[in-house]
Amino acid sequence: MIKSALAVLTSLLFIHAGLAPAAAQTVNNTAKKPVKKAVAKRAAQPVSRTVAKGSLNNREKLVRKVTVVKGKRQVSYQRVSAAPSVPVVPPVMTAGDMAGLNLTPDPLALRSNVALVIDQANSQVLFEKNSGVALPIASVTKLMTALVVVEARQNMEEVLTVTDDDVDREKHSSSRLRVGATLSRDDMLHIALMSSENRAASALGRNYPGGLPAFVAAMNAKARSLGMMDTRYVDSTGLSSQNVASARDLAKLVVAAYNYPIIRQYSTDPKYMVEPSGHALQYNSSNRLTSNKEWDIGLQKTGFINEAGHCLVMYTRIEGRPIVMVFLDSKGRLSHVGDAARMRKWLVDDQPSNLTRMKMVRADEG
């Protein structure tokens, strides 16, 4: 009996000893699981707290990044600066666009809404596109400014002073002539025609007998005398979009201005040096074609304001023919120059019948 009792006791002790490690391991595993979850929870807490507190400023955003490391999926978050939003600026609509002129097709695919090309030898219209529509003409206005100044026979050596009245407060354009700068009327006319200097053109109008109102009246009177019935001027610079004319009217102005050598020379000089108040300034032509040896330009004027687009008028010779060109409301900084080159090529290469006919006209006139 005693041996049997000892055997049973020994078995119980052995079983208890064997179960103890397993039980301990089970307990340890059970204890570890909550620890791992707690650690994972603590690792995730900073991210969730950051989002919950809304600590991101207006220029930051939270980017979620998922990676796999040793077969385990890991999620992380990173602050990055958000790209600033760029406002969408609608394209500037010119007066011609608003009138629907941009819908007019032409065989040369010109970028100008208005075009007119005339053979001055016989007044024949070679090309025409919306030429009867009055539009803003920007600094082409200065061609009439020059015509009024020259025909007024004012003293060209008289020294004029730029004043605060000459500062552009409509378009806020810049000028190299400071308030207080002095130049002769001749120099003012030169840089107004060649470089479209606005303060020079303003000073010319302001120093007319009776001031600027009388000068503008003289501009409109001259337009009427030339038969420019679609034309209206309100200033001497062209900065106002209320200065309007049709291409047909501007062709008449080009022909009238071409009669004066001083306007021909000043408008076509590629560069000119002036010394306002003793400080040397070099001005360059606003029309790059004046420096192009392939062109024979006798008179030109460019212009630009948003409402008018890019404008160009010229009196030139092509294959010996006197040609008047007018381009208004062109899109692109050099598009009016490109249209002139396109037109010149068309007249020379693609219109042999016109070339032959014009040569015959000149021969008959001779």
TrEMBL record:
Residues in the signal sequence: 1-22
Organism domain of life: Bacteria
A UniProt-annotated Pfam family: Peptidase_S11
Residues holding substrate: K301
Positions annotated as active site in the UniProt record: S139 (acyl-ester intermediate), K142 (proton acceptor), S196
Entry keywords, A to Z: Cell shape, Cell wall biogenesis/degradation, Hydrolase, Peptidoglycan synthesis, Signal
All copies of domain Peptidase S11 D-alanyl-D-alanine carboxypeptidase A N-terminal, residue ranges: 106-331
GO terms of biological process kind: cell wall organization; peptidoglycan biosynthetic process; proteolysis; regulation of cell shape
Enzyme Commission number(s) from the entry: 3.4.-.-
Gene Ontology molecular function, alphabetical: serine-type D-Ala-D-Ala carboxypeptidase activity
Family to which the UniProt record says this protein belongs: Belongs to the peptidase S11 family.
PANTHER family: D-ALANYL-D-ALANINE CARBOXYPEPTIDASE (PTHR21581), D-ALANYL-D-ALANINE ENDOPEPTIDASE (PTHR21581:SF26)
NCBIfam families linked: PRK11669.1
Protein name: D-alanyl-D-alanine-endopeptidase (Penicillin-binding) protein
Annotated organism of origin: Herbaspirillum seropedicae (strain SmR1)
